[in-house]
Amino acid sequence: MIGKPGIFVLLIALAAGSSSLLAQSLNSGLRGPTPLNEEGPAPPMTPMRNTSEKEVRNYPEQPPVIPHSIEGYQIDMNGNKCLSCHARARTGETQAPMVSITHFMDRDGQFLASVSPRRFFCTSCHVPQNVVKAPITNDFVDVDTLVSRAAPGGRR
Amino acid sequence: MSAVDPAAPRRSWLARLWSFIVELWDVLRRPSSVFGLGVLVFAGFVAGIIFWGGFNTALEITNTEKFCTGCHEMRDNVFAELKSTVHFTNRSGVRASCPDCHVPHNWTDKIARKMQASKEVWGHLFGTIDTPEKFRDHRLELALREWARLKANDSLECRNCHSSESMDITKQSPRASVAHQRFLFTGDKTCIDCHKGIAHHLPDMKGVPGWQ
Asked: Is the ipTM of this complex over 0.90?
């Protein structure tokens, strides 16, 4: 059993702890100075990266990002604007990269004549990029860097 | 003109109309015995201004966004779709409203298009596209007609604002710059060949050249 002075000390410790928790947790660096329970002003919209230059993939399986603006591009049951350049038959005229052959395969592993319905909605995986300054740093390293770091001077 | 004989049988309205037309023609073909030639010429001049001005004013009223969106077929379908596009709101505040793209600006072509549009009045009165389902069913037909019109006049309504002469390709994205040099400047294609569905949603594009 703890005595009266013990309970008093415990209460003070709890109060101090909770007040410091309250003070530090109600805002976050990503959101700026606005407390979490309030809605701050919307950040300004940033322009889309529109260079049309391929970007390096961070890992081989990464869906390539879209290096151009796709504002107003319709992708629905009526049509797919992306495919009017990236479809196999259209690439000669447009010089756009062809949709990967993996996208022609249906769920049973059968290759179809054109893009499989499950791969029809391009923006499920491929996204355009906006010109923004990243709010937090990222220490991601690609696999080449990782392998060479693991075995210095060794086989890459 | 004889006095109406109450004993005579009542004539049909067609016969009465015909006799009125004959009587009017008799008056019109006789030279005036009351007004001077100068008065007649001046009155004709003034009447000409009033009628011609009135005709053109009425024509211009049918050429406004407000008039076009007066019908729910336009307001709820195509106008609603236009609102999210760059031709409705943009950074410089220029708006292309319905007639800017869909009615030729040249007078003769405008009258020709307005006469075609009488068919659209028929469609409105008889509810050809008065539900979203009916509109969807007719959407490809309507779009094909507009695409054919723009293809035939070399996208004239686009070029009323956008001309290849005043286009600065160095200000365009590399992709747009290359495409315009290869296809537009060579006369290989016209605007509508590539820029379909920029102001409205697309219909089912199956079978449309260049689409999947």
From this structure: no
Q: What is the pTM of this model?
A: 0.77
Residues of B near A (Cβ–Cβ under 8 Å) read 85-86, 173-175, 178-179, 197-198, 201-205, 208, 210-212
Taking an 8 Å cut-off on Cβ atoms, the answer to whether B211 and A84 are in contact is yes
Q: What is the pLDDT of residues B75-99, one digit of tens each?
A: 999 999 999 999 999 999 999 999 9
CB burial of B75-114 (b: ≥16 within 10 Å; e: otherwise) equals eebbbeebeebebeeeeeeeebbbbbbbbbeeeeeeeeee
pLDDT digits (tens, 9 = 90+) for B105-162: 889 999 999 999 999 999 999 999 999 999 999 999 999 999 999 999 999 999 999 9
Output the six-digit token pair for A91: 């690439």
Q: Which of A52, A87, A115 sits opposite B175 (nearest CB)?
A: A52
Residues 6+ apart with CB under 8 A from A119: A99, A103, A104
| C-alpha closest to that of B175 among A89, A49, A83 | A49
B204 contacts A50? CB cut-off 8 A:
no
